[in-house]
Amino acid sequence: MAEQGVFSVEFSPPRNAEAVVKLRSTRAELAQVGPAFYSVTFGAGGSTREGTLNAALEMHADGLHAVPHISCVATSRAAVAELLQTYRDAGIRHLVALRGDAPSGMAGSAGDFRYAADLVAYIRAEHGSWFRIEVAAYPEIHPQARSPAEDLQHFVDKVRAGADGAITQYFFNDDAYLRFVEDAARLGCAVPIVPGIMPITNFTQLARFSDNCGAEIPRWIRRRLESFGDDRASIRAFGADVVASLCARLLDQGAPGLHFYTMNAAAPTLEIWRRAGLPVRPRQ
């Protein structure tokens, strides 16, 4: 199964010159295992628009398969059109299309596109099949969803609007992922749904992220992490074991690949990659 999967990585755009240098080093290290693509996130309300654009264009120019995120919250149709044309002119053919987060104090519906499905439909209408489009999926339900059924319907709408595939929010409960895939399939969604994988390196940071995005940390994992206190080495070792085991189970149960949220650091992802026995396909 692992030999046939699509294994990819995700970065945040660098915010200063030092971070630019660090990201170049990180992606060079990760290139040793040959990720299928390198995605770059898009800050709330387009706050990292230029950083995302510059990072994606640099990766693409270096011969990497760059996949920039593009969101529609607090964004005009004209701005989206300009960004899409810039990527197309550069030869980039793969995007992650999201609703995205609103800047602090701004209503989530601000902008010319209300939902990610609207953005996907617009990209398809303007650019046909030029772009492969990934969308987000939430096995444990989006924190702002009014109900599980509504959240699932939003996902179905994105697929029907023209999405080619999906990447999930990270999770540690593989049953939630498997149930989500089954539920989507029952509604006619046949696109690959790739699990998002979060390395565990810092419990405080993980707990904060998880509370914000609605990802559950199972009690047994949370209690073990708490017991390590400030012992970062033990947290990393335990986290690598837990996440590598999750990756192996997901692939054994038919997941079409894995997408790693690297937090712009290579070592944690590479350790999981090694422990899970994922294929190494160095960049030629």
What is the CATH top level name?
Answer: Alpha Beta
Question: What general form does the structure show?
Answer: globular
Residue share in helix? 40-55%
- Strand neighbour order, sheet with most strands: 1-2-3-4-5-6-7-8
The assigned structural class equals alpha/beta
Can you name the CATH architecture?
Alpha-Beta Barrel
Please describe the topology of this protein.
Blueprint: E1 6-11, H1 17-30, E2 38-40, H2 49-61, E3 66-71, H3 77-90, E4 94-98, H4 116-127, E5 132-137, H5 148-161, E6 165-170, H6 174-186, E7 193-197, H7 203-213, H8 219-227, H9 232-252, E8 257-261, H10 267-275
Parallel strand pairs: 1-2, 1-8, 2-3, 3-4, 4-5, 5-6, 6-7, 7-8
Commentary on this structure:
There is one protein chain. This protein is an alpha/beta fold. The protein has a single domain (2-275), classed as TIM Barrel (Alpha-Beta Barrel). The protein is built from ten helices and eight strands. It has helices at 17-30, 49-61, 77-90, 116-127, 148-161, 174-186, 203-213, 219-227, 232-252, 267-275, and strands spanning 6-11, 38-40, 66-71, 94-98, 132-137, 165-170, 193-197, 257-261. The chain has an eight-stranded parallel β-barrel, surrounded by five helices. Helix 4 (116-127) runs parallel beside helix 5 and helix 9 (232-252) packs across helix 10. The longest helix has 21 residues, at 232-252.
